Amino acid sequence: xxxxxxxxxxxxxxxxxxxxxxxxxxxxxxxxxxxxxxxxxxxxxxxxxxxxxxxxxxxxxxxxxxxxxxxxxxxxxxxxxxxxxxxxxxxxxxxxxxxxxxxxxxxxxxxxxxxxxxxxxxxxxxxxxxxxxxxxxxxxxxxxxxxxxxxxxxxxxxxxxxxxxxxxxxxxxxxxxxxxxxxxxxxxxxxxxxxxxxxxxxxxxxxxxxxxxxxxxxxxxxxxxxxxxxxxxxxxxxxxxxxxxxxxxxxxxxxxxxxxxxxxxxxxxxxxxxxxxxxxxxxxxxxxxxxxxxxxxxxxxxxxxxxxxxxxxxx
Amino acid sequence: xxxxxxxxxxxxxxxxxxxxxxxxxxxxxxxxxxxxxxxxxxxxxxxxxxxxxxxxxxxxxxxxxxxxxxxxxxxxxxxxxxxxxxxxxxxxxxxxxxxxxxxxxxxxxxxxxxxxxxxxxxxxxxxxxxxxxxxxxxxxxxxxxxxxxxxxxxxxxxxxxxxxxxxxxxxxxxxxxxxxxxxxxxxxxxxxxxxxxxxxxxxxxxxxxxxxxxxxxxxxxxxxxxxxxxxxxxxxxxxxxxxxxxxxxxxxxxxxxxxxxxxxxxxxxxxxxxxxxxxxxxxxxxxxxxxxxxxxxxxxxxxxxxxxxxxxxxx
Amino acid sequence: xxxxxxxxxxxxxxxxxxxxxxxxxxxxxxxxxxxxxxxxxxxxxxxxxxxxxxxxxxxxxxxxxxxxxxxxxxxxxxxxxxxxxxxxxxxxxxxxxxxxxxxxxxxxxxxxxxxxxxxxxxxxxxxxxxxxxxxxxxxxxxxxxxxxxxxxxxxxxxxxxxxxxxxxxxxxxxxxxxxxxxxxxxxxxxxxxxxxxxxxxxxxxxxxxxxxxxxxxxxxxxxxxxxxxxxxxxxxxxxxxxxxxxxxxxxxxxxxxxxxxxxxxxxxxxxxxxxxxxxxxxxxxxxxxxxxxxxxxxxxxxxxxxxxxxxxxxx
Amino acid sequence: xxxxxxxxxxxxxxxxxxxxxxxxxxxxxxxxxxxxxxxxxxxxxxxxxxxxxxxxxxxxxxxxxxxxxxxxxxxxxxxxxxxxxxxxxxxxxxxxxxxxxxxxxxxxxxxxxxxxxxxxxxxxxxxxxxxxxxxxxxxxxxxxxxxxxxxxxxxxxxxxxxxxxxxxxxxxxxxxxxxxxxxxxxxxxxxxxxxxxxxxxxxxxxxxxxxxxxxxxxxxxxxxxxxxxxxxxxxxxxxxxxxxxxxxxxxxxxxxxxxxxxxxxxxxxxxxxxxxxxxxxxxxxxxxxxxxxxxxxxxxxxxxxxxxxxxxxxx
Lengths: 315, 315, 315, 315
What we know:
Chain A is an alpha+beta fold.
């Protein structure tokens, strides 16, 4: 595994020097001021060893990466009945599109577009106060990452609440079709706070281990979810995790991954590694520009693509 | 590997007895008369051993499964310049939708929807007579399958030519956007004949070995395509291979696969197996109903999902 | 003009006895309980004479018919600069569709679909409290109808506010594109109250006179708007006044008209008559079923279609 | 009527000197070479008097203006059963859009978009050879215009056949839905030839008289169609005659009109005038730029808008 350490540092070095860093998301004001020069990377391998480089300890807004943990939480609550309210297909449209909702009568195409994540928040709310549901999700993520210092960035949460008109539109639109059980402001409250969770690459990679390990918390650890559920969440990440660039990410990187507009990406090499990468500049599809490139380099160097013959001798 | 033989027979038995078989495709007249009671299955494992059951020797119309081989052929001709003319994203719409083409100015979303496959045929035509391009594809498939008896079903090809109005529309529509270099009837001629290739499950599984083996023709054999290209074709099969049910197939089966309306599916477990399954009855998304179910059973029994931790000890 | 009186009574009689009355709008609870057996009709001719029959004095919820008066009010405030924020084309989609807004970046296609009417409400709000804007509109309508008894049905307004999730979605969606200057709840407050204005057929026909009279309040009366503006509002009513059934209404009736889901329709025969008709049962496009039929009969009997050669000797 | 003559000449003079003339249609090669400096205008009033100015005798390709005459011909053949195969609503999309056809299962929204006109051609073909149907339409137009010199421009017809890929796509797409009874190339043959009819403004205005005169061939002449049918064709021209700019044309001009990409427009002031205008430069919606402006001027100067109070004393 010495190789992994070397790869992590080489990739971090290349990215630190890369001239084209993309555009920082501007529609959530506090995110607009993040320094685009930053790059962080952390890999946890299946033996539990952590390899970090660059700004791997710097907390950033995980935004839509939180949808993976919230989905896991919702499946724990209602199991496969979730799929009556949200689909499992790539959307073919941008992350915040409302067109598909009209065509398909208020049923979002998958749990990783905003509309689908709002349904997931609605499930997690489960009749409680928003802060109960948010607290529960935060505790779950802290448990996964083995880190009690993970918090919500209230400045970001407030900014989302003040400017998240498209999300308010999506929630009310689904409410009109009967696919929201709580008052829209309550569900939106859960959603906005979940997006505002701040984590470092190290914390995020640690929190993603259960998806690498077939549902186990850590090597030899407790079972968080069944092996089948872990496989299925990975499948959804691969087909839907990068919005309308999911096909391209699968083509270039070949790993299940979920991106957020804060510039973070969580990628999973099943049985091999959980990878967190962060760089705030985004490409035209809203995914971290250098984060995607870094994962492409890592997949190449390690041979971890899920589409490679296994036992390739390189890992 | 004795297990694989047992699994193949058990699955074939279960499917032979299954009461709900779906609807045979009716829009291509010769396909409408195929007996829905049939079910064939063949698995070639990475050691080259073949396990077959049911109607595994019965030739059927491979239809859109041919798009995998035609794509491989086109990438061999023009390399990554192909991606200037066709995308790599799931479509979010049915296989024969024309809506996306209008929105995206004549560029099909991926090479596995009909419009994208027409662009691939246009590339393969390369200024020759249609029969030259078709002959070349047929020779390529015979070489992959090591079987010179594979032929085109001319009755099916003629029927497609007489009733394929939507495909004629798609070709002319792309022509209007300048994304077809030959006269539409020539490109369509290649496409209709390619869809009419008839293969048995055994032949199809053999022909798919190069995608399991990182691009090698057979265990220890010659290189057909690079390892990277094999990975990428697998990635496209996973995200786009089942039209607007690709997400569900990834969720349930977890393997790259390409289906055809003749009822065949080619699925790849990288490094482990190439699987061909056939049952003519289709589900509402146009994919083989029992074929999909059989692959779900096989993935479960073998643990071959690309989303499982590898080295699970089961294969 | 004796003829008009006879036509009014004959049509009212035919409609009273008509067996198929359509479905009463159910999504706004107080409207769902309106007796579908009712039918009212009132025609004011260019000489100021009123002909009424049936339930012509019964107040009903004018709903989207209010969009005509609100548009007139907004054009008075901001003139043709309104058209920077809303288009003038038929939508090709249902009245509450959000799809078009996404395609056209938050600019509604016309002021008579809900999204466009919300922009108009936003203009009329003009930085004041919602009740100021509503009061102003109500005064304008009372002045047009010469009737101080016209009021807002607060039960209906409250019900709209509680269940109008699609309108809330539309408002927030436009806010996201910067096409709403006030907080969405304020603009929605104006809109919901405007829709809840209750008027009888007599009041509505009287209020519509200015559109028949080239912008004059009443025969020989004061000018409300310019002749050009009156023509243009009539043009918009003809091309966009019946949502996605506007073409059919023009084809069958041939008069500018605006319908509401309360079952009312205001139709204008320029230079000849202002016509208000009401029957609560709707057809599949959300327009009054018997109201439309009654207008078809009236247009036939009077020759008032704007598409007839004038000087037909019948009016 | 001396006024009309003066208006015609003043408008022609203003347009001849106008600096911004739009872009000549380039996708049909022979049309691309037409001199954009030309402008013709001819008005026939209800007394049969003709007023012409500018290049009013110059023949041009009438293109989509032919759809009015072809629709009249088809309604004569099959009456209102035509409406089972084509709608009567504005499309909300460009003239050659195929999106709407997919959503509405092969039924075009109206007879004036290309898909709808293809259905009309299919009706007119009626089992005969294309040249029979074309000959019949040409005879009908010559009869209406009282001019035997009107011919088809074979160069244009051939160019359309060679480059009309979107129309070929539309025809085949409807064929796939069963909404084309003849082989697509036959129906397309009729359509392409009909579009290639060449007429001068004088000929076109004369041919349009029946729509001004409630269905009569000429003042006091024979009945061509019923008064109701004339009204209804006018209604369709108003709501659908300028593609996705029909609402704007109604707003600005206020007359039923049909435009063609050759730069011609036929407009009808019912009971008052038939107006033909021609200038080859188009605006961004594909309608004659100066033609539209000229009609706006004429409608203003004459008070002929169908949305004005009649008896305005000006005509």
